[in-house]
Amino acid sequence: MTDLLLPDGRVLDLFDTGSGGGANSDVLVFHHGTPGSSVVPRAFVSAARDRGLRVLSWSRPGSATSTRHPGRDVASVVTDTASVLDQLGIESAWNVGWSGGGPHTLACAALLPERIRGTASLAGVAPYVESLGTLEWFAGMGQDNLDEFGAPLESEPAVRAYLEAQRPGLVNISAHEIIGGMESLLPAVDRAFCTDEFGEDLAASFRRAVQVGVDGWLDDDLAFAKPWGFELSAISGPVAIWQGSEDLMVPFSHGVWLSTAIPNSRAFLLQGEGHLSVALGDLVAILDDLLTHEAS
Question: How does pLDDT run across 18-30, given as a tens digit for each residue?
Answer without folding.
Answer: 865 444 469 999 9
